[in-house]
Amino acid sequence: MIRTNRRSIAAIVLPALLALAPPAAAHSPDPVLSGPLWAQDQNVRFRWRAGEAPPAAMQTAIKAAAADAGATRRSRAATFTPDPAGTSWINYGLDVGCGVNGLACFNRVSAPNSFTMSFREQGHVFDWGILRWCQLTANQPDGCYDAENIALDEFGHVEILNHHVNFDDQRDYLDAVVQAYSRAKPRVGWSAHAFGRCDVASLQRKYDVALPTSKYSTCLDLSTNLSIAASATYVPYPGSVTFTARLLVTDLAEYERLGGNPVSGRTVSIQSRLPGGAWTAVATMTAGPAAGSYVYRATQLQATADWRAVFAKPAGEGIRGASSPVVTVAVSGCTKPPCPLSVEAP
Amino acid sequence: MIAVRSCLVRLASAGRAATVVLLIATAGCAAPGASSGAPLVTGLPPSTAPAFKPSPPNPQPPVALLTVGSSGPTPGAIGSYTYLGTGSDAPWLPGTPTTVPSRGGRATIVLQPAVATAAWTVRQAQTGDTDGTTARRIAAGTGPIAFALPTGSGTIVLVVDFAAGAGSASYFWALSPG
User: Which chain A residues have a beta carbon less than 8 Å from that of B122?
Assistant: First the structure.
């Protein structure tokens, strides 16, 4: 009977889940689930399921986890807000759809309309032991599970995240909250209350970053593209030229929503060299009017030179450095006025 | 009132007949083992939400059956999984006790019902490991799950990525040489 139900559900759902997801390598961004995303910045409201609301301390922890998800997503992923009229529900107790060994579970089949989330009851007897929620156990003894941490893991799943693939020795366990092996107190990571960088990386890819100035997760390694344009490539002596550089995340399909993003608020420098000479740093470009643009006005130009913009890989961010193509600005050979009023490009 | 409702919930979810529910509700509902207790139902807030309906079953991933030589098949203890838009989170598990040939041998694992897989890995951890930090990969592949099982005891965990992005699941066995 149960098997028939499972097959029926699979027959209905599977055809809708055809997006292929290659297996993730260790230490890469979290793999993601198939299925629909929430809208960017969608505020998803949830309530306690009637008659199965968690005890007060668990409610507090779950609401804290919802806030953690919103505060640490570093992306335009959905946020979660408690609301008695919410269409999504969370329950606690015996009537949960979790696996036989599951502490908690989720169902996002109805995304982007609603989700469900369930938590096993305190004292549940598993083959592996008795469930103790730290929030419901006096003095939070070793071996208890932090409901806020577990709930944040579930909210990560609800967003779209699958379990992070760790190194064999799990030394990167703290890179993700969405983990395949939940940890009890006092194991490393048992009380993490913020998405890890590899959780964030996938949230950013799926939902985008909030602003051009937003930092990219260090679990990413995005190539960037830096262009440069000069207001003129042939100027009189002593001439002036305005250089405008544009820094973008390279537009690659695997970057999903991040591809082509303008990147603002970073340090982009401009360099010059005499033909055949070595590059010399000239200045740091200032923010331009457009997102991802940087400008520099060079004045009193007295000799023909090559120019380029350079973006050095920043520390603490998952984007690579880039150099722009070279633009040559020729300066008229006339060095003593009166020079011709107009010049022609060579 | 709350205790009776808890019983109703449990029995309804198990698909019992209404008459049984009524009998149990009037006679008192025995908790299964240590899994429930009075403190759990304190502090429930008044709710204005819609009336209770039993949960529809979430889709469950397949069972994984381990065979080593002539021993088995033994179902693995299922840990965390994601499957068809749902999922469940569990700790590192000690695994299903499984006696295997002392010399190790050729191991195969089949999924039941058969589900297409994209990739799989098998790791082995030392006996007593409670969070998998001693686990090391002993095999990985695509297609049929078959590998050489090393000698010795310990826990092995199979992680399967299902095809078509359907999810992933982990299964545990606690090996003891026979």
Answer: none
